[in-house]
Design brief:
245 residues; alpha/beta; TIM Barrel; 8-stranded mixed beta barrel
């Protein structure tokens, strides 16, 4: 072995930790080729009362799911409990969302959602506020409604909520306010690209990206929203341990 060859080997050894670190960074959640996938579901994904086979969903590579729990002050997804149990049994990181009705009290809706979704929120992903219509409120009033809802849910659950929204809705109905940019963002953007477009509201990063509303996956007998996890909540798998809290 010549001295030149020995020098090359020493250089490779020195570079090995850096190469390993780079590989791990590339494989982090949200990196190309290492996307963590998951659907979100509501009653629409149960046509004719059909169940979702969450074991088939998990076996097809989907590692998290977020299910609608409540809407306004009087609607509970009739499949919320069975889906919550199914996700837990399959080892899927599970979450729950509330569909906002800005015409009704935000505090009352927060209490309604928190009490209904408590079993999922306790050991699953943080609670989600789905805000995508204004209820006729002008931006200042809608911003106030959102603030009050988020504060109430956090006080009731002890967890910072996630905000789900669309870019155009936030830029118009919410006047592109940056007040909530410290909350995790779940952005819906069906642009057909490899990432969401420019984020609204001063957000610099997304936690979840809903990239289609017409996906098809094993275990679900209807079209379904599909999402990527972009990091920000740590190892998402800890929210899917069926033997955890």
């Amino acid at each position: 072995m010549t001295s030149t060859r020995r020098g090359r080997i020493r250089n490779v050894i020195r570079l090995a930790p850096l190469l390993l670190a780079g590989a791990l960074a590339f494989a982090a959640p949200g990196a190309a080729g290492a996307q963590i996938n998951g659907p979100d579901a509501a009653s629409w994904q149960h046509p004719g009362g059909a169940s979702i086979d969450w074991f088939a969903v998990r076996a097809s590579g989907h590692e998290f799911a977020i299910v609608k729990a409540t809407e306004s002050l009087n609607y509970v997804n009739p499949y919320f409990v069975q889906d919550g149990i199914g996700m837990r049994a399959a080892g899927i990181a599970r979450g729950a969302y509330h569909y906002a009705d800005p015409t009704q009290s935000p505090e009352a809706q927060a209490a309604f959602f928190a009490s209904t979704a408590a079993p999922v929120i306790a050991g699953g992903l943080p609670p989600v506020l789905d805000i995508e219509h204004s209820g006729g409120l002008p931006p200042a009033a809608l911003i106030d409604w959102t603030r009050r809802y988020l504060n109430s849910v956090q006080a009731l659950t002890g967890r910072q909520p996630i905000i789900y929204t669309y870019p155009n809705f936030w830029r118009t109905a919410m006047a592109n306010t940056t007040e909530f940019s410290n909350y995790p963002l779940w952005i819906a953007d069906y642009n057909g690209g490899a990432a969401p477009g420019p984020l609204p509201g001063g957000w610099r990063h997304w936690t979840f990206w809903q990239y289609t509303d017409s996906g098809r996956i094993p275990g679900v007998n209807a079209a379904i929203d599909l999402n990527y996890y972009g990091g920000g909540l740590g190892d998402i798998h800890v929210f899917g341990n069926p033997f955890g809290s």
